[in-house]
Amino acid sequence: MLLRNWAQPWRVADIHLTTQDLDYQNLSPEVLVSDHLTDLNEADAAQLRELGLDSQSMERLIDNRPYRSKLELVSRMVLAEGVYAAIKDKVAVADGREPVKVA
After folding, report:
1. Is 101 a member of any domain?
2. Handedness of CA 62, 65, 66, 72 (dihedral sign)
3. Cis (ω within 30 of 0) for the bond into 66?
4. Within a domain: 76
């Protein structure tokens, strides 16, 4: 019975992606504020809590900064696909085309 479960193909969750999701956008912090978007690289815990994230998701999101694109939340396995789907229209990354220095 256990073997039969492993033989079933994995189902990938449906995520609606647009070119905007895949692009390293060059949005300024001012544009994010005017569009009421939360900057993934700058948001504090209170702002992330307003998105409906639990404490573990917030911790992973903060620990894995910086991001160049919001899609990195899924591609780097920071958030589950369902959680990403719930917040993707509320978040963005300011200056995503700027070089990122990783410590």
Report:
1. no
2. negative
3. yes
4. yes
61 lies in some domain: yes
SS (H, E, C) the chain: CHHHHHHCCCCCCCCCCCHHHHCCCCECHHHHHHCCCEECCCCCHHHHHHCCCCHHHHHHHHHCCCCCCCCHHHHCCCCCHHHHHHHCCCEECECCCCCCCCC
| The two three-digit tokens of residue 15, written as one number | 């995520």
Instruction: Give the closest residue to 25 by CA, choosing from 36, 14, 40.
Output: 40
What pLDDT digit, counting tens, does each position of 54-86 carry?
Answer: 999 999 999 999 998 898 999 999 999 999 999
Tokens 């220095």 sit on residue: 101
